[in-house]
């Protein structure tokens, strides 16, 4: 199903910086009428089309308040995420839990809160990673592999209410999350453009770079 961006209303979690901010900018550049951009410590926006909302995705109450406020949104982007818990053997177990709590359960809280209003043509976008399919990043990899699986099951669960579910997969991208890594990185604006293309065309998945397209081959479903 396709979703027209022009005049639409969207929510982007973590939409005030990094990839989330690039997605907000791309949605607005393509004609979205209003975008709710969340942050745990929000800064005012100078753009009248941006509604800044304080939200913590690990807190179901905070997410429910966001869904109430953004009751007119028909596009929801689960972008908020954290890295950490690299070693499954030696990282603090609470840190491992907290990465999974944010990246998997956070996305699930938001999805459950918004699912009713996405019925009848809405779009849910969940940002996973190439590390859904590659080893070596401990808790982060677990959270993104689980999110891949969740994306595939949510697509089945939501298809009978006519809601698109788009899984987004990407390698290193130039944001503060990987600022200390000296490696080639995607431009967040380019990833954002592909995500918004995917929303518009009703894609099941967005594979943002060559490494991700290669890693996807062979992963069933
Ligand atoms: N950068 C990469 O190389 C890369 C690669 C693959 C996938 N990704 C994924 O892309 C997404 C965006 O990450 P990024 O690269 O833009 O990283 P980033 O610059 O570190 O931004 C992370 C965003 O997540 C929000 N966030 C984190 N924890 C949150 C929580 N508990 N509740 C609400 N919001 C929370 C932050 O919002 P505030 O701090 O403003 O509250 C911030 O906007 C993440 O899902 C990440 O896993 C990134």
TrEMBL record:
- Name the keywords, alphabetized: Oxidoreductase
Domain of life assignment: Bacteria
- Keyword check for Oxidoreductase: yes
> What are the transmembrane regions?
none
Which terms in the Gene Ontology molecular function aspect does this entry carry?
oxidoreductase activity
Similarity comment: Belongs to the short-chain dehydrogenases/reductases (SDR) family.
PANTHER family given in the database record: NADPH-DEPENDENT 1-ACYLDIHYDROXYACETONE PHOSPHATE REDUCTASE
Protein name, entry field: Short-chain dehydrogenase
């Amino acid at each position: 199903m396709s979703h027209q961006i022009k005049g639409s209303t969207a929510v982007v979690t973590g939409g005030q910086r990094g990839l989330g901010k690039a997605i907000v900018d791309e949605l607005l550049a393509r004609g979205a009428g209003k975008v709710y951009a969340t942050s745990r410590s929000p800064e005012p926006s100078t753009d009248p089309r941006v509604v800044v909302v304080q939200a913590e995705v690990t807190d179901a109450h905070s997410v429910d308040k966001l869904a109430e406020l953004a009751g007119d949104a028909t596009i929801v982007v689960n972008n908020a995420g954290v890295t950490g818990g690299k070693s499954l053997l030696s990282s603090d177990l609470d840190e491992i839990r907290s990465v999974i709590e944010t990246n998997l359960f956070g996305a699930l809280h938001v999805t459950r809160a918004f699912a009713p209003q996405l019925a009848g043509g809405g779009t849910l976008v969940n940002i996973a990673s190439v590390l859904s399919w590659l080893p070596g990043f401990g808790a982060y990899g677990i959270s993104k592999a689980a999110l891949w699986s969740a994306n595939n099951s949510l697509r089945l669960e939501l298809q009978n209410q006519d809601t698109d579910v788009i899984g987004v997969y990407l390698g290193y991208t130039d944001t503060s999350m990987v600022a200390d890594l000296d490696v080639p990185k995607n431009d967040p604006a380019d990833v954002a453009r592909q995500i918004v293309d995917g929303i518009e065309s009703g894609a099941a998945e967005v594979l943002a770079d060559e490494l991700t397209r290669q890693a996807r081959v062979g992963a069933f479903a």
